[in-house]
Structure formats: C-alpha cells, structure tokens
Amino acid sequence: MNAMDEHPVRVTVTDDLERNRWTVFFRLLLAIPHFVWLALWGVAAFVAAFVNWLVTLVDGRSPEPLFDFLAAYVRYATHVYAYVLFAANPYPGFKGEPGYPVDVELGRPQPQNRWKTGFRIVLALPALALTDALVGGAPSSWSAQGRSGGGSFSYTTSGAGVAFTVACLAWFAILARGRMPQGFRDLVAYCLRFAAQTWAYVFILTDRYPEADPALPRAVEPAPANPVRLALEDDPRRSRLTVFFRLLLALPHLVWLALWGIAAIFALIGIWVGTVVKGRPPAGLHRFLSSFLRYAIHVYAFLCLVGGPFPAFGGRPGTYPVEIELPPPGPQGRWGAFFRLVLAVPALAVNGALGIALLVSAVLSWFASLVTGREPLGLQRLGAFALRYEAQTSAYLYLLTARYPYSGPWTQAADEQLMLGE
Amino acid sequence: MSARRAGRLAALALAAAAWIALALLLWRSSRVPSSLRLAPVRLHDFFTPHQLARARAFERFGRIDWLLSELALLGALAVYARRGPRFARESAAGRIGTGLLLGMLGLGIVWLVQLPFDLAGLWWDRRHGIAHSSYWEWIFGNWLGLGGSFLFVCLALVIVMGLARVLGARWWLVGGPAFVALAALFTFVSPYLMTGVHPLRDPALLADARRFAREQGLPPVRIVVQDVHAETSAPNAEAVGLGPTRRVILWDTLLDGRFGPREVRVVVAHELGHLSRDHLVEGLAWFALFAVPGAWVIARATRRRGGMAEPAAVPLGLFVLVVLQLLALPLQAAISRHIEAEADWVALQTTRDPTAATGLFRRFTTVALAQPDPPGWSYLLLADHPTIEQRIGMAEAWRRLHGGSTK
After folding, report:
1. Does the beta carbon of B7 lie under 8 angstroms from any beta carbon of chain A?
2. A364 to chain B, minimum CA–CA distance in Å?
3. Are residues A196 and A340 in the same domain?
4. Which of B270, B245, B277, B264 is nearest to B349 (CA)?
5. Contacts of residue A253 in chain B, CB cutoff 8 Å?
6. CB distance A313–B93 less than 8 Å?
C-alpha cells in the first residue's frame, strides 16, 4: 500500500477537464462571494482551531462538532481554490459539502499525540513554507521584515506559487481550447492536496504530517508520454557531513557547469540554426547538449539533496542515481524550432515556480537530513518531480526533443515519465 | 645496504645539501647590517605596568586558543585520515571527483573543528575592542572566503591527482613547481581580488610615499586604503602584487587619528621596503623551497594508500600537509621575522625618524595589544614579526648609529 493511501486527508479528483470559456473568463469575479465567505468562515475557523487545540491537548482527541466544522472549512477552501485555479469547473457550494470534482476526504476524529498537538504550530512551519511555495497567495502567505545590527534585511514570500502560476497559464489555455490541460489540473490538484493536509494538520484535525510525495492524486486520464524521463534510484540515507557542507561541496560543480554553460550557449545557437535549416538537430550538438543537460540535472539533484552521491563531472548516462533519459535526435517541425524560445515561455514560467518549490524542499530536506540522516521520501520525490520538469523544459528549449513538457506530477498513468527504484 | 638504497640515500643527502645551500643563499639576501647590535630596551621606559599587563593578558588567551585549536585540528584530521576514505561511497564521480569530495570534506572538518576556537578568539577580540563584527556576521560573512578555499582545494587536488595518474609516485617533481607557479600567479593577481579598497587621498602622505619610493629605487607605487573599520580596530598594512600589480595597502584603522602622520610614514616606508627588497619574490622562493620537499613527503607518506592518484590517499595527504605545516612553523616564523626586520631597517634608513618608529611600535602595544615580550615558545612558533621590544631596540640602535630625529 502506498504511504499516501494511509493519509487521513485525501484529495479525490473526478474532474473531466471540460471548461466553460465564459465562466473561466470571469472566474475571479465570479469567485468574489466565495472569497468573502471564505474570509468570514476563516475567522471563525481560526477561533475554532484554537479551541480544538486546547480540547485535543486535554482529551487527546478532537471533539466531533469542532472536527466537522473545521473539516468542512478545509473542504470548502479546497473547493474554492480548485475553482479559482481552474482545477474544477462547477461553481462550488457554500457549505463545503462533499461531492465536488476536487474534493477532500477527512475521515473521523482519531486519537492524537499530545506532544505533537502542543507544539503543532511550530511543527507546521516547514509544511506551511512548502504550501506557500506550492500554492502561494492567502491564506498561506507570509512576509516579514527585520533589522539587525547596522544593516537591514527583509524577506517576503507568497504571491505566485506553483498553483497560481499554472492557473495564470491555464486561463489562456482554456480560453483557447475550452479544456484544462491535464498536466496543469493534476499539478494544481497536487498542490491543493498538500495545502489541505497542511491546514488539517494546523487545525488539529489529524496529527499525521502533510505528505509532499506527489504520487497522488492519480490521473483520471492517461498522461501523454514524454521521451524525457527521470529515474530515481537513490538510497535516501545521507551522510550528515556531506549534507552540512552540501552547498560548498557543490561549488566546483557549479563553476564547471557555468563554464560548460558558456560553450552550451554557442551549441544552442548552432543546434537552433541546424534544426531550422535541416528539420533535425545536428547529432554532434544534440549529444553535447544532452550531456550538458544530464550533468546539470545531476548537479541540481546533488545540490537539492534529491541525490546523495557527489556526481561525476562528465554528464555521462548511468553514472548517477537521479538519471534522465533523453531521446536520440529526431525530425522536428521547422516552425516549432524557429519559435522555440517563445513557445517555451509557459513551460519556463511553470519551471520557475517549481524551482522555488524545489528550493524550499531542499532547505527543508537539509534540516531533516541533518537531524535524521535520511532524506524524507516525500521531499525527495517532490524534488525528483521538479527536476523531471526541469529536464523536460530544458530538453524542449535546447531542441533535444519537440515534445512539450508535461507538468503533471507523476501519476499512475505517467509512471513511465518518472521511474522509482524502491 | 644495497647499492640502490645507498644511491637513494646519497641523492637524498645531496638534495638536503642543495636545500640548505639555497636556504642560506636566500637568508643572506635580506638582512640588516651585521654590525648592528640591538639596543637593550627597558620596557618600563616605554609602557606603564598596566599597559604591559593588559597586552600580556590579551595575547595569553590567543596563544592558549591557538594551541587548543591546533591540537583539536590534529586529532580531527588524524581520525579523518583513518576513517575519511569511507566517504568515497558518497561519490559517483570517479577517482579524481571522489578525491575532490574527500578533500573538500577534509577542509569542512578543519573549518568545523576550528570554528569554536575562532569564535572564542572573536569573543576575546570583541571584549578588548579589537573586533567589531557580530558573531553572525563573522560566521556568514566568511562563507565567500570559505567557498574560495573549497575551490582552491579542488584546483590543488585536480593538479596533484592528475599528475599522480600520469607520473605515478614522481608527481611531486612537477606538482611542487606547479604550486609555486600558482602561488606566483595568486601573488600577481591578489591586488585585484581585494574588496573595499580605494586610493589614498592624503596629498602629504602621497608625496612622502613617492619620495620614499624614489629613495628606495622604486618606480611610483600605488598606495591604496582598505576599509576594515567595521570589522576591526587593529592597525595593519601590507605590500602586495608583483611587477606592475605591486601596491601598498593601508588599513583605514591606521588613518583614523590614533597614529600620527610621522608614524604612518614609517609604515609606508616599511611596506615600500618589502617591495624595494623584493620580499614577495623572496617569499615565493622560500615557498618553493618548502613546497617541493613537502610534496615529496606527501607522495612518500601516501604510498600505502596507493599514492595521490587514489582518492583514499587524500585524507591522509591532508593530515600530512597539516603536520608538515606545523613542523615548518618555527622555520617559517624565523624567515618572516628576518624579512620584516629588514623592512624595519629600510624604513628607518628611508624616514631617518627613529622617534616616529618607536612611537609606532609603542602604539602597536597600546592600541592593538601586541605583547612586547612574548614567551620564548610563542616567539619561536608564532611571531612572524620581530617583537615590539626588538623593533624598538632596532630604532634605538639606528639612533645610536646615525643620530636622527628626536622630534
């Protein structure tokens, strides 16, 4: 049984990808009543969550009325977000009742560990940070400013998370095609699942930590095959010393990658000209850029703790446990090749958002691996998913393949895009 | 004894004799007049008992901190030399790549082990008003430098392991000179790597610097100021660069009014003395004298681990390097003191102002808490400049020989 199947907070997706262009065009305006109601309910939910925290701390279990009230809020919030982010089409109800195409199942109240309950808000911080990177915007956004010594520092997160970035792109795609791209829908559903699990955890509905593994929700329809695949066969055990110095250890690779990148720019110009003229990428340049991309993925995997071992410098296939498979040179449409940079812009936007999620996941992995000596499986698979998308985007941009990147997290149907060695 | 072994011993003896001859030649290339006898100095004529006690207490802590730090470092590296090779399983990078990983991890261990002692040193310096950096700034502000060190270790290991793969156990024959060439390159470009520097804007001091350079037979030398007052109040200056990149760097803590203009002139003349007497080239020559036999010792010591071509030899090589550096410390300190003494002498000859020189050296104790008379072992191991007592003694000896200003 998959670990995800055991999680008490599950997201089910029964959406058929069909969208009404009119409701999509006006989606934000249509959602205004829901925003107002969500905010009002949210105030009550935070008060209820505090009471729930106190009661669970004493009783070791959430009282049913409070549980139902908060569960309905989490469900309703998920419906609203799914609607606003185009993961579902019907206008959601205002009561958070089950049955929406992107829905949350929460089960019944279970006994909870009092220690985990007592320190819940502190324990939830990593999950909240990842939720922020995955969803973005309220209610998971936060910002802070501070002053230290003579200088000041400030940092702000939130805004465009993965789901919001995808939704912006989906708006155009749906208006053009009348359908939500499956990869986009699955990606948003994954982000919402993690957010729902996080808020269920924060509201003391469960003491089970949110699961970052993007294995679920499973796709309703088969995902399109992509010739760029990623295999993860890494042992999650980590040496704490190599984890502690990970950034410094990656420095020679980053320098080498930058130097190689200079040559890659010229190769990219060459392959672009060659593909536009011949309708097929020149084999030598294809090989060169494939090695470069493979090496870059090895380095990113090492840097972000998705992979454990120190990678080799050559980018040869089969040398690293986080490995990408790239297609041989094949025929490509000349127009598609000519406008490749423009066509790649949406994929680059999603890739940027996933890159932030990867960064947050890497920071969390760093702390977790340092404490436990193991890379958390969920974070590792999230990282692998982000790297797979990075590989597909780069391969498309570098004209190694004409296949557009598939943004859905790996699912039952898309297993062939990300092979897990367990 | 076999003929082969006898031949090796003879070659070793010949090499040792050549080393000693070259070292003597270098030693004699920089010197103060042999007739000079340092004047006896009664410290109580120059410092109050409180000043002496404060400087002694300040440096005592630093010495203990250093001693403990070195002991911890040796212990940690000895363990790493033994157990480090097991980190090879954390690598998918082939022999040289794995060697880089083990080298960088070794450097990381050095950093980790020394961190508490460095922080203790910072605490002590902050307590005495010498350092101004916060602990947070100190740890994170140094990450860039630490990253540079990691990259340098990688470069060094690529050279060593690459040569060892090609030349086997004789890699040191090319490796030693290669490191000397690298050191020369670094000395040449180092002025361009410095941050927070700007040209000196004091016209009087600039005019003096031009005159001093001319008197010492130098072309005009750039004098620049480095802003360090946010991190430290310690005064310092240095001569850097080779040929066209030569320049003198004054820390802005020398120019904040605590030192008189005449005292700063002595500093400038001293640093110009390093350039006019080619001390940086001499330093490179000394480095070559240590680097080549040092590389040979490392090559010999790592034979049982398969030589430096094997990643498993890297932790041991690192340990041997640190041990060699510790063993060479007294000699290196003596060489440095010898060179600094000549620069002091050149400064006195140029400025003809022993009073200013004495004032400057006094202030090193009253301002920077330099102990005028460190204990013998500390002097032998750590003193890279003559003691304050010796420097004042030289200034007074110069005065006895030439008269000179008593302004």
Report:
1. no
2. 19
3. no
4. B270
5. none
6. yes
Whether A157 shows a pLDDT value over 80: the answer reads: no
Q: What is the pLDDT of residue A217?
A: 56
Q: Is residue A216 part of a domain?
A: no
Distance from CA of B329 to the nearest CA of A (A): 29
Best mutation target, A152, A246, A248, to test chain B (most B CBs within 10 A): A248
Confidence of residue A219 (pLDDT cuts 50, 70, 90): low
Which residues of chain A neighbour B146 with C-beta distances below 8 Å?
248
Sole residue written with tokens 């010495």: B63
Q: Do A310 and B98 touch (CB under 8 A)?
A: yes
Which residue range(s) make up the domain with B75?
A: 46-402
- Does A198 share its domain with A238? no
Could you tell me if A198 and A233 lie in one domain?
A: no
The answer to whether residue B331 scores a pLDDT higher than 90 is yes
Task: Give the nearest partner residue to B91 out of A148, A149, A310, using CB atoms.
Answer: A310
- Tokens 């000079």 belong to B36
**Same domain, yes or no, for A174 and A274?**
no
B96 is a domain residue: yes
In a domain, A335, yes or no: yes
Position A220 in a domain: no
Chain B: residue whose CA lies nearest to A320: B92
In a domain, B168, yes or no: yes
3-state SS, chain B, equals CCHHHHHHHHHHHHHHHHHHHHHHHHHHHCCCCCCCCCCCCCHHHHCCHHHHHHHHHHHHHHHHHHHHHHHHHHHHHHHHHHHHHHHHHHECCHHHHHHHHHHHHHHHHHHHHHHHHHHHHHHHHHHCCCECCCHHHHHHHCHHHHHHHHHHHHHHHHHHHHHHHHHHHHHHHHHHHHHHHHHHHHHHHHHHHCCCEEECCCHHHHHHHHHHHHHCCCCCCEEEEECCCCCECCCCEEEECCHHHCEEEEEHHHCCCCCCHHHHHHHHHHHHHHHHCCHHHHHHHHHHHHHHHHHHHHHHHCHHHCCCCCCCHHHHHHHHHHHHHHHHHHHHHHHHHHHHHHHHHHHHHHHCCHHHHHHHHHHHHHCCCCCCCCCHHHHHHHCCCCCHHHHHHHHHHHHHHHCCCCC
A115 touches chain B (CB under 8 A): no
Write down the pLDDT at residue A214.
Answer: 84
In-domain check, residue B71: yes
Cβ of B269 under 8 Å from any chain A Cβ? no
The pLDDT tens digits of the residues spanning A158-180 come to: 457 999 999 999 999 999 999 99
pLDDT surpassing 50 at residue A300: yes
Note whether residue A219 is domain-resident. no
Residues A186 and A233 in one domain: no
Its pTM stands at 0.86
Question: Domain count of chain A?
Answer: 2
**Domains in chain B, number:** 1
CB atoms within 10 A of CB A108: 10
* A220 SS3 class: coil
CA distance A311 to chain B (A): 5
Q: How far is CA A119 from CA A53, A115, A123, A201, B176, in A?
A: 10, 6, 6, 11, 58
Q: Does B384 touch chain A (CB under 8 A)?
A: no
**Contact residues, chain A, for B94 at CB < 8 Å:** 312-313
Question: A248 and B98 in contact by Cβ < 8 A?
Answer: no
Kindly identify which residue of chain A lies nearest to residue B147, measuring between CA atoms. Answer: A248
8 Å CB contact of B94 and A310: no
Residue from the list B92, B136, B147 with its beta carbon closest to the beta carbon of A311: B92
Q: Are residues A382 and A263 in the same domain?
A: yes
ipTM of this predicted structure: 0.82
Range of the domain at A103: 3-143+157-202
Which residues in chain A are contacts of B98 at CB distance < 8 A? 310
